[in-house]
């Protein structure tokens, strides 16, 4: 692959900054920007679907987890998400009307490929959300839905993730229309928000300087917790994965509502707790989690939007304020902040950002 770092120190940094462009490219592939509608996709019909099964590994699986909230609320479509290595060995149940979606940047991940073969053998329609058009998963799927992220070189996935989310958001809107749960105006609203996401992402990335400062604060800690609710819960898992992968700091993501069922026991003076807290429908619940951990001494870093920042003033030790997004665009915008945080912790610690120890870009053997 011919790829250059340009002015960036690492491919990962370059790829983080390419996100506005690749999100725009991916969304443009799926939508009509004049009608503010999602294009039909030949061979894909969510009307009669009884369930959507989503399978992937690592970051791709987390993109699937986030989209479960969208398919549920926009299309009333039941979604089951699994990591490929579990799915393929648990003798999965397939039901009439199932559609199975396999998410993979490389299109070559062994477990994801085998999971897809299993679904195909059961007679289930297989969709592949892939970034590599000539990959094995793309070739064998009944239908390919592409992400248009371009080659991703950094082992830790960034722009492939946000491209997957962009495409999944479009598919959820399509499913919502197919299933009669989104009217014309609602569809237009969602599509308009997706079309606005690259511009908002540019603004989100402008927080890099502040995030770099915070990265220096947490780089010396042995453990970091990430909390989020609803669609921000899988994003918290992805955030923790990013930090682990490249900085080798132990990190855990938790659903904020689970705090009292264990993780709160870990809170001690100075423990960094990073809370993904957009001012959404569940903001007050997230805010109360912030109060609970802060009162036990946690060093709370809240990632929020302008309205959330006003509410959290004096409650979180640090606040990163991103632009206000929508239900569909918030996870994309908030992803950029957690990517930059992991990136700058790793740079500060001097790890090999693009080639972290023991990890491979694509896991083609079990
Ligand atoms: C490896 C990579 C991850 C990636 C995962 C799935 O673990 O390091 O960045 O998320 O594989 O890869 P895929 O190509 O299937 O998306």
UniProtKB/TrEMBL annotation:
<feature type="domain" description="SIS">
    <location>
        <begin position="214"/>
        <end position="356"/>
    </location>
</feature>
<keyword id="KW-0315">Glutamine amidotransferase</keyword>
<keyword id="KW-0963">Cytoplasm</keyword>
<keyword id="KW-0032">Aminotransferase</keyword>
<keyword id="KW-0808">Transferase</keyword>
<comment type="subunit">
    <text>Homodimer.</text>
</comment>
<feature type="domain" description="SIS">
    <location>
        <begin position="42"/>
        <end position="181"/>
    </location>
</feature>
<dbReference type="GO" id="GO:0008483">
    <property type="term" value="F:transaminase activity"/>
</dbReference>
<comment type="function">
    <text>Catalyzes the first step in hexosamine metabolism, converting fructose-6P into glucosamine-6P using glutamine as a nitrogen source.</text>
</comment>
<protein>
    <recommendedName>
        <fullName>Glutamine--fructose-6-phosphate aminotransferase [isomerizing]</fullName>
        <ecNumber>2.6.1.16</ecNumber>
    </recommendedName>
</protein>
<feature type="active site" description="For Fru-6P isomerization activity">
    <location>
        <position position="361"/>
    </location>
</feature>
<keyword id="KW-0677">Repeat</keyword>
């Amino acid at each position: 692959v011919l790829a250059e770092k340009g002015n960036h120190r690492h491919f990962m940094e370059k790829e983080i900054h390419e996100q506005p462009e690749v999100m725009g490219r991916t969304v443009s592939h799926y939508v009509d920007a004049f009608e503010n509608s999602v294009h039909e996709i030949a061979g894909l019909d969510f009307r009669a679907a009884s369930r959507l099964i989503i399978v992937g590994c690592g970051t791709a699986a987390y993109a699937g987890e986030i989209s479960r909230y969208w398919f549920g609320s926009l299309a009333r479509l039941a979604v089951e998400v699994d990591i490929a290595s579990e799915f393929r060995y648990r003798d999965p149940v397939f039901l009439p009307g199932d559609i199975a979606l396999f998410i993979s940047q490389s299109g070559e991940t062994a477990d994801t490929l085998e999971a897809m073969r299993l679904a195909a053998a059961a007679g289930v329609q297989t969709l592949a959300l892939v970034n590599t058009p000539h990959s094995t998963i793309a070739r064998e799927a009944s239908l390919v839905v592409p992400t248009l992220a371009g080659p991703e070189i950094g082992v830790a996935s960034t722009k492939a993730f946000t491209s997957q989310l962009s495409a999944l958001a479009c598919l959820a809107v399509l499913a919502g229309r197919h299933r009669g749960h989104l009217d014309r105006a609602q569809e237009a609203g969602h599509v308009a928000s997706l079309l606005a996401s690259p511009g908002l992402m540019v603004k989100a990335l402008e927080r890099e300087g502040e995030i770099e400062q915070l990265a220096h604060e947490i780089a010396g800690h042995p453990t970091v917790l990430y909390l989020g609710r609803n669609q921000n819960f899988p994003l918290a898992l992805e955030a923790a994965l990013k930090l682990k992968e490249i900085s080798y700091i132990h990190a855990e993501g938790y659903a904020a509502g689970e705090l009292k069922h264990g993780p709160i026991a870990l809170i001690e003076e100075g423990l960094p707790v990073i809370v993904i807290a957009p001012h959404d429908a569940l903001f007050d619940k997230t805010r109360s989690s912030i109060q609970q951990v802060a009162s036990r001494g946690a060093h709370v870093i809240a990632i929020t939007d302008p309205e959330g920042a006003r509410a959290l003033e004096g409650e979180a030790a640090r606040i990163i304020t991103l632009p206000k997004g929508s239900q569909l665009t918030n996870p994309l915008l908030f992803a950029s902040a957690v990517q930059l945080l992991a990136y700058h912790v790793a740079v500060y610690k001097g790890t090999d950002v693009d080639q972290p120890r023991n990890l491979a870009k694509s896991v083609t053997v079990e």
